[in-house]
User: Which sequence fits this backbone?
């Protein structure tokens, strides 16, 4: 089969011939890949700063944001049949019996560090024609969402974050039980990439007044998209943080989706009383930068603030993402479609992975729906 992979030992990225996978357990499902999203993590793996091939392979097949169609099921598969559309999750549990999270299907909180991730860490990914997966790591997708299903995985970042925000803010008893928990509250999203835009949509649906603070000057297409869903785009290049703070007022939540520390730590200074700051971006290794640590610490204490870092996602986050994509599609059909900025054949992998980052979510089309 054709596959896109990296050879870290040789520092090469290329199109390679990968053996077709076989089902080897009764709960295995064989899937034909339809689309795979390209994200910052894939691009970073292509700089050989991140990512590890399986132990017995000199290469790693890339791709962890996928949608595919079931072609074969094992005898123990109960909830899927050939023709169903599925989105796989990314992380697989470690093998240690004392890892309570992994044993409870919460490998997103694995504490041994020996988890694997498809297309990222020690397990091949989905940028190839067929893949095999255990049924429990697959999420069924309603057919009417097939054109946006490749956005499920990136949306799970916001969904897992939101689930934790509600848990953390459960410390404020008067917030409990509100049907639209963000109502009357203000959120700032940092970054207008796919994670930021999908996060902004999720925050709006949950009732937050939402600002997206991102580098690029206006006008630009991402700003137009953000403004079209009822959020307010503000350019960090045009409006410094201090001035931005005056427009926004009390900031209840910051959802960081930038992956760089400088603007992020500046915005931490404007987090309001009882506020939550969620980090989702993974910065590259860089030289240290100065931060106003004493002032930040003082605010964190005197303002009851919480900072949460979040990575990966559990099954409920996938279920929420699938549900919310349906909501977004009804509410903003044009905007959600335009989050996918381009669909490309597999041969375009080089430009998408190694060229200048362009658009919002670029997708590689590998197969077609039956
Ligand atoms: C993926 C996550 C993964 C993380 C760290 C992200 O790009 O979406 O599933 O856990 O990278 O490897």
Assistant:
């Amino acid at each position: 089969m054709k596959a896109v992979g990296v050879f870290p030992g040789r520092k090469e990225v290329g199109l390679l011939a990968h053996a077709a996978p076989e089902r080897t357990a009764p709960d295995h499902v064989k899937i034909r890949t339809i689309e795979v999203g390209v994200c910052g993590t894939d691009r970073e793996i292509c700089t050989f700063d991140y990512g590890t091939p399986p132990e017995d392979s000199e290469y790693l097949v890339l791709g962890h944001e996928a949608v595919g169609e079931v072609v074969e099921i094992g005898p123990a598969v109960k909830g899927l049949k050939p023709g169903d559309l599925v989105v796989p999750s990314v992380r697989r549990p470690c093998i240690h019996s004392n890892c309570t999270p992994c044993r409870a299907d919460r490998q997103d909180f694995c504490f041994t560090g020996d988890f694997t991730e498809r297309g990222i860490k020690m397990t091949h990914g989905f940028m190839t024609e067929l893949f095999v997966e255990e049924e429990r790591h697959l999420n069924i997708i309603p057919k009417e969402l097939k054109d946006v299903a490749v956005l499920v995985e990136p949306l799970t970042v916001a969904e897992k974050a939101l689930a934790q925000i509600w848990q953390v803010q459960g410390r404020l008893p008067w917030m409990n039980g509100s049907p639209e928990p963000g109502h009357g509250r203000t959120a700032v999203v940092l970054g207008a990439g796919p994670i930021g835009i999908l996060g902004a949509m999720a925050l709006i649906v949950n009732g937050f007044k939402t600002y997206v603070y991102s580098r690029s000057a206006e006008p630009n297409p991402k700003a137009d998209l953000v403004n079209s869903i009822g959020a307010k785009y503000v350019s960090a290049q045009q409006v410094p943080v201090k001035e931005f703070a005056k427009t926004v007022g009390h900031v209840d939540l910051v959802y960081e989706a930038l992956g760089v520390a400088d603007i992020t730590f500046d915005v931490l200074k404007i987090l309001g009383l009882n506020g939550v700051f969620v980090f989702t971006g993974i910065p590259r290794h860089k030289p240290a930068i100065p931060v106003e640590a004493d002032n930040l610490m003082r605010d964190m204490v005197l303002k009851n603030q919480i900072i949460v870092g979040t990575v990966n996602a559990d099954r409920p986050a996938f279920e929420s993402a699938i549900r919310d994509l349906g909501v977004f599609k009804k509410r903003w059909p044009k905007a959600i479609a335009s989050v996918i900025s381009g669909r490309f054949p597999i041969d375009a992998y080089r430009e998408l992975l190694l060229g200048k980052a362009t658009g919002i979510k670029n997708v590689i089309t590998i197969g077609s729906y039956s």
